[in-house]
Structure to design on (225 residues):
């Protein structure tokens, strides 16, 4: 089975621009979560989506938004990019919302803001 | 969220057992203990999880203290491929299923 896929793998944007990152979960997984990982730190939770609805949100500004599509794929959007948004953005999928269920992470999208 | 404390780094010789400690003194009775690891240039990978009893799977063993205030991830025979950052995480409460990562323990494996 294919794992979690993310696109693009790398991206360079300028301050003030907007970016859209995409994630396809493992087949049969209905929950998608997004994480931001700054260099040298552990991943930080941004959003969880389950059955196309937002089920959890981390401590991130409103410039960050996301959505989940009927096929359970997801997009993360970031507006008005700041230098501090440079990070590895990780998508994770799980079969459902059960907090015991393991999450499967994609390889991430490396975003550089200049 | 309940917090975990892990050593910043550890070293192990190849083919020897590794014991990675984690302290979580403020754990609640319903918090599960999860371990993930992140190999260089990859996303995190699930390793194991448990609630009260010790757990074993093909990757590792999880030993949980009787008072649940600490746990230990055991790799029975370290290989070079086990060199990674290991994160000990407590599940958050009811509602969304978010993983709250700390800085983890960077494990180096010496050939």
């Amino acid at each position: 089975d294919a794992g979690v896929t993310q696109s693009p793998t790398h991206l360079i944007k300028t301050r003030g621009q907007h970016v859209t990152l995409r994630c396809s979960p493992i087949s049969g997984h209905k929950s998608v979560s997004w994480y931001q990982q700054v260099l040298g730190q552990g991943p930080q939770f941004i959003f969880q989506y389950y059955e196309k609805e937002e089920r959890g949100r981390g401590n991130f500004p409103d410039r960050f938004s996301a959505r989940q599509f009927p096929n359970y794929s997801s997009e993360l959007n970031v507006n008005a990019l700041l230098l501090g948004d440079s990070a590895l953005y990780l998508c994770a999928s799980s079969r459902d919302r059960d907090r015991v269920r393991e999450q499967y992470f994609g390889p991430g999208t490396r975003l550089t803001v200049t | 969220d309940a917090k975990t404390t892990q050593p910043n780094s550890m070293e192990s010789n190849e083919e020897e057992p590794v014991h990675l400690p984690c302290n979580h003194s403020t754990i609640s009775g319903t918090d599960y203990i999860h371990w993930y690891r992140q190999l260089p240039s990859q996303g995190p990978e699930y390793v194991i999880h448990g609630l009260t009893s010790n757990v074993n799977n093909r990757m590792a063993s999880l030993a949980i203290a009787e008072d649940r205030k600490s746990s230990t991830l055991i790799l029975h025979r370290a290989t070079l491929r086990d060199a990674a950052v290991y994160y000990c995480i407590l599940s958050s409460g009811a509602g969304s299923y978010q993983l709250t990562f700390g800085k983890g323990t960077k494990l180096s494996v010496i050939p």
Notes: The two ends of chain A are 37 Å apart (CA to CA). Chain A has a mean pLDDT of 94. Chain A is about 0% helix and 50% strand.
